[in-house]
């Protein structure tokens, strides 16, 4: 027996981590007691074999619901739902087709090969990521357990800062949910809700929604009903308005819920939540994703529209009634309803109006991208007097309007405080009434907490930026940046032939940059002059406006810009706050101007890599993923007439045609030919079985070969990249981030 107490503790942690998965226990095949009878090597070999992710056999849960839809541009996609867990995912059609193969009989590596046979793409990271995505959203039965992550969490020391962060987040963002409310929503819809979707009700609603604001303009001019006063008291007025605001939020959310029921979909839960510590209401309308885009738009529209119509009713009542308590009450409630509706319809705030616009135009992260464009590209183009494209004009208009509205809202809030709130606070404090004073404290909190948080966030960014810039001048900060850049460069195969002293010089020339969400780092068609390495965060790669890939930490892009001033072939947009290291063309030229040997090696490496990247078979791979595969692909040159594969022999190698042409021969007959970018021998990646055909070179041919063991190693590396593989497209349902991770339909 040759393991010590620390090994036993680690094994105990593994056992604890695996208790959540019976399937993992079955695959493991031994308990901790059995482990005591093994030596060290056997213990870890057994663990490695049992927990090998590429040997997992994913099995999709039964009764998955699927909705096949298309974007406004005609691109198809599929939204799937697991009714048992009430989880949703958005997949492209090819990903959805793979679900029928996930029946528990195929391993992950078999799925990769079958995807290749069906679609002609060696999509190792795509299938790996799809399996992880399905697992994380509970679409797999007895999913493979990520025991290494569980073990890391168990062994990780307690950190007080993480605990405090969780407590603060719990205060700022938490919710009290009532589940299984669909039956009640269905009864409400059948009893009353359906009426509001009839043609007469819609026409009446449109009239009331127009009349309401007009009546209020008239009443405010006449000043029959003073703002925020009921019975001559500001405190009473504010108390009533706070109560009415709560009722308005409930009506707003019921409007969303009735629209979901009108679409024939499911409302699983609703309730109250804290958003930045302030109370709000919500209903979960996620199920509307299973409906066509038109019904999704109606669902977003229904919440504020309901308030607008009821506000019109109250305005009409206040107009027709003589002055008195009832008229004042209707005036106050109608004002709350209309302000709430107009506030939610505002497309410049991330509320219903904004998401209506995003869904209508199908432009996720519209606000972030527009503000990013205004902060950076817009002013550069204005100074250069360049013509803006149609999309750039829209981004500029939306971004500038958002900025203008932000300043206007601050001015309006200050004027509002000066003209109205000051009187309320003074009256309440002077009254000595504890209820009135409590109401004033609540009112001040409603206004000051979001403002304080916003100011804190702005101040933190400014201070951090100032310190970073000041720190960049210091030797310690510079040394830290150089080490960071050197480590990042060493991880990129492109730089492997650069001598260490030269690599250190290049690292010193690199610069760090924090990228805000929505910022376009490079734009398709523009001349490239920088190479980027992603330190943290995530970026989407867009070709002609369509998302084709996602780059996470450790990835890189823009290599060709160092050698050639060529137009960018894609746009790269930050989809979350990120950090990059970059090196520009001029610094690269200056450092390697006299080092022709190193430059030629890099040019040859880039040319080879660009050539391989252009093969359609490998189109799905990011630069880092491609380099990982290239590290295992072995070049092979064969003359015309050479037999590459012989029928009946055992095989363990896969072949990609880099150039030239080969023919497939079965039982003496030519049955097919293969050219550049095509491949043969994929079954050999899975098992050591006899070849079913002979493959012969028709002309001098360049091949790339991949052995079964190298295939396993590469696929395992992709699987171990974790969260970078769980986001595969620009429009996953999560990317809307309505109020962070809260359910859709927050009012």
Q: Care to describe what's here?
A:
- It is globular, with a radius of gyration of 31 Å.
- 52% of the residues lie in helices and 16% in strands.
- It has 747 residues and is an alpha+beta fold.
- It has six domains: 5-51, no CATH class; 65-155, no CATH class; 158-362, no CATH class; 369-473; 476-615, Sandwich (Jelly Rolls); 632-725, Jelly Rolls (Sandwich), CATH 2.60.120.10.
- It is built from 25 helices and 22 strands.
- The strands form six sheets. Strands 7-14-9-12 form a four-stranded antiparallel beta sheet. It has a four-stranded antiparallel beta sheet with strand order 8-13-10-11.
- The model is unreliable at 1-7, 17-38 and 721-747 (pLDDT under 50).
- The termini are far apart.
Sum up the structure in keywords.
alpha+beta, 16% strand, 22 strands, disordered C terminus, disordered N terminus, 747 residues, 52% helix, four-stranded antiparallel beta sheet
Secondary-structure blueprint of this entry?
Layout: H1 5-18, H2 22-28, H3 32-35, H4 40-50, E1 65-70, E2 76-82, E3 87-91, H5 93-99, H6 108-119, H7 124-136, H8 147-155, H9 160-172, E4 173-179, H10 182-191, H11 199-222, H12 234-262, E5 269-275, E6 278-283, H13 293-320, H14 325-345, H15 352-361, H16 366-383, H17 390-431, H18 434-472, H19 475-490, H20 500-509, E7 511-515, E8 520-522, E9 530-536, E10 539-543, E11 546-551, E12 556-557, H21 560-563, E13 571-574, E14 578-584, H22 585-592, H23 596-613, H24 623-630, E15 634-638, E16 643-645, E17 653-659, E18 662-666, E19 669-674, E20 679-680, E21 694-697, E22 701-707, H25 708-719
Antiparallel strand pairs: 1-2, 2-3, 4-5, 5-6, 7-14, 8-13, 9-12, 9-14, 10-11, 10-13, 15-22, 16-21, 17-20, 17-22, 18-19, 18-21
